[in-house]
Design a protein that fits this description.
The chain has about 260 residues and is α+β, with helices and mostly antiparallel strands. It is built from nine helices and 13 strands. The chain has two domains: about 160 residues, Jelly Rolls, CATH 2.60.120.10; about 80 residues, Arc Repressor Mutant, subunit A (Orthogonal Bundle).
């Protein structure tokens, strides 16, 4: 029953009947991963899509020289590894648990069948892939044409839009990332990120805590890179995905290896 509840947390599966959810659940596998454990690796067989039941996951690419780039962060209730729906073969990136996480592997054939049965679910998957591609293309544009400072500010605005939580002190980004992580997203180094954040703090744009960033003036920060002030719509959408109360601990044995 818990896996059915996890499926219900994902907006893509909300419209499925209890019977169809039970059928889907019977064909899936659930696994729990420790912090920093790989969920899948490059060249692993891409045999299914994953639903993150709890925790947070990062999707990364590693260059031949060993440099890591973070492509995306996945939150509970979201799908990842979705390209397996359209092509068989091997994974090109790797997924790692940022914190203790539970993931459900859904066979690609099951997702394809659901998409054939439900045009709205099919449209939802297509939109998901389109949004992630748009986000990656936007980051690529920033990497090619913007300074380290501007790339970092654009990332902070993106994080504010998705995770921002208003507080009396300002807008708490609501996601705990190290300077190394921020550098891996924008194609920079930990040292450069630390220096740039210090400059932004000295200029009154933000306040730095231990793995915590509070934006003091979102509008002024956006104006500094000539973009509109972001809204919190994506953060609200995430709250809707997670609106059902949590029950109990996730089921699944702890594995240190990918599927």
């Amino acid at each position: 029953m818990q896996r059915i509840w996890h499926f219900n947390r994902c907006v893509l599966f909300e419209r499925l009947s209890s019977q169809r959810l039970a059928e889907l659940e019977s064909r899936c596998r659930m696994r729990k991963f420790n912090r920093k454990a790989p969920i899948y690796l490059p060249r692993d067989e891409a045999d299914g899509v994953l639903l993150l039941a709890s925790g947070r996951v990062k999707i990364c690419h590693v260059s031949p020289e060993g440099k890591q780039s973070i492509l995306a962060f996945i939150e509970a209730g979201e799908l990842f590894g979705e390209l397996a729906i359209f092509e068989n073969g091997q994974r090109e990136e790797y997924a790692e648990a940022v914190e203790t996480a539970t993931a459900i592997l859904i066979p690609a054939a099951e997702i394809r069948q659901l998409m054939a049965e439900d045009p709205k679910l099919s449209l939802g998957v297509t939109k998901l892939i389109g949004m992630r591609r748009q986000r990656v293309e936007r980051r690529l544009k920033y990497l090619l044409f913007h300074s380290n400072r501007d790339r970092l500010v654009h990332l902070l605005l993106e994080l504010a839009e998705r995770y921002g939580k208003p507080t009396p002190d300002g807008l708490d980004l609501g996601i705990r990332l190290s300077h190394q992580d921020l550098g891996a997203v924008i194609g920079s180094t930990r040292e450069t990120v630390s220096i740039t954040l210090g400059e932004l703090q000295a200029e009154g744009y933000l306040e730095i805590g231990r793995r915590r960033l509070v934006l003091k003036d979102l509008e002024r920060l956006a104006k500094s890179v000539n973009v509109p002030t972001p809204t919190l719509n994506l953060a609200k959408a995430r709250e809707n995905v997670l609106r059902k109360p949590q029950i109990g601990a996730a089921i699944g044995s702890v594995l240190r290896h990918p599927y």
